[in-house]
Each structure stands twice: as structure tokens, then as C-alpha cells.
Amino acid sequence: MAWTKRNVRSLVRKYLQRHQPQSRKFELNVAGVNRAGDYWYVLVEPNASKIRFAEYGEELMDTEEDIRAHEKRPPNLLLVPVLPMDADDR
Fold it and tell me: pTM (2 decimals)?
């Protein structure tokens, strides 16, 4: 498959739904997709402010592993944590 931004975004969203944080204080969303060389960098952010990476880092790693394990020819990708802006910073 020739990977595009659209289908990489769709693929990550699909697998990310399986690995949402247990706390349910927030959800993780794909904020952007960028390609550099052979790698896709998928920006993932929580939908609430003041959330630390430590609260969802494991979910990102599990999502990456799940994609590699279950997709026949997965894209080379890295899920990149992005912290949402506080309302004060906007």
C-alpha cells in the first residue's frame, strides 16, 4: 500500500481507539501527520489541558506495537506526544 497522510491518520485513529487511557479523564486524538523520508510522524494530543505525557505515554507505545503486530505492511511511524495549549496561552 502506498501510504498517504489521510490513510496513516485513519490507521492511527483506528488503533488509538483501542488504547485510550483507562482514567477517561481525557481522550487522545491525532493532531497532525508529517512525513520525513521513510517515516511518518503522527502528532497525538490529549483533549484536555494540564495532562502530562506520563499519563498517556504507555498508550502511545502500545498503539505503535499493535499497528506493527496486526498490519500486514505497516508504515514506518512514530507517535509523537503533543501537549495541548492552555487556554491562557491562546
Answer: 0.89
